[in-house]
Amino acid sequence: EDQVTQSPEALRLQEGESSSLNCSYTVSGLRGLFWYRQDPGKGPEFLFTLYSAGEEKEKERLKATLTKKESFLHITAPKPEDSATYLCAGPRGGSQGNLIFGKGTKLSVKP
Amino acid sequence: GAGVSQTPSNKVTEKGKYVELRCDPISGHTALYWYRQSLGQGPEFLIYFQGTGAADDSGLPNDRFFAVRPEGSVSTLKIQRTERGDSAVYLCASSLSGLLADTQYFGPGTRLTVL
User: Fold this and answer.
1) How high is the pLDDT of residue B1?
2) Residue A68: what pLDDT?
3) How many CB atoms lie within 10 A of CB A38?
4) For residue A104, which residues of chain B lie inside 8 Å, CB to CB?
5) Which domain holds residue A34?
């Protein structure tokens, strides 16, 4: 069964304390892994798409990496404004538009 | 440019009533998606349109749920005989082409509360 699992469910960091979020997927024939950021009361905001193992993408303090089985979202020297829920998703096997989302990691960064 | 917009932002209705939720995609995007998100969960796929036709409706939970996109732009999600379990945030997304791994851009959602 296609599945996307994120860990941890919640993460509390001090400002400047770097860490990583994990996304494990068991989607047959993965054809893209997406990372989104979601603020309370808002829709998910696109961050990255990764297509193949070994690929890395960066945006400000965020870097996403992809292996054959999992993806990591590394946060370097986070700031309070990085506080949000981070979601990862992959296309369901055999479908083009049907994304399977994980439950997300709720990140809190304290000043 | 303008992003995906959804109306209303909030909808409160009574059990058994009919509701319509509207989505305006990004101009020029041919693919449109509906998801449902419950508290503490990730979005759950409902239906995907390529142009005017539903390319994948495998996520619609039952026949009370129906969606249309008659002119290939605006879409309406229709829910008949609403139940308390339908309460959730309904998210709409659009993408340029709907091709494999095309980036989906989300709207702010409609929060539906069924009393």
Assistant:
1) 55
2) 87
3) 22
4) 42
5) 3-110
Specify the pLDDT at position B90: 98
Query: What is the least distance, in Å, from the CA of B34 to any CA of chain A?
Result: 10
Task: Look at chain A and report how many structural domains it folds into.
Answer: 1
Would the CB atoms of A100 and B45 count as touching at under 8 Å? yes
Question: Which domains, ranges and CATH numbers included, belong to chain B?
Answer: 5-96 (2.60.40.10)
Percent of chain A at pLDDT > 90 equals 77
Whether residues A101 and B33 touch (CB distance < 8 A) is answered with no
**Interface check A95 vs B, CB under 8 A:** yes
Q: B84: which DSSP letter?
A: G
B86-105 pLDDT tens trace: 999 999 999 998 777 789 99
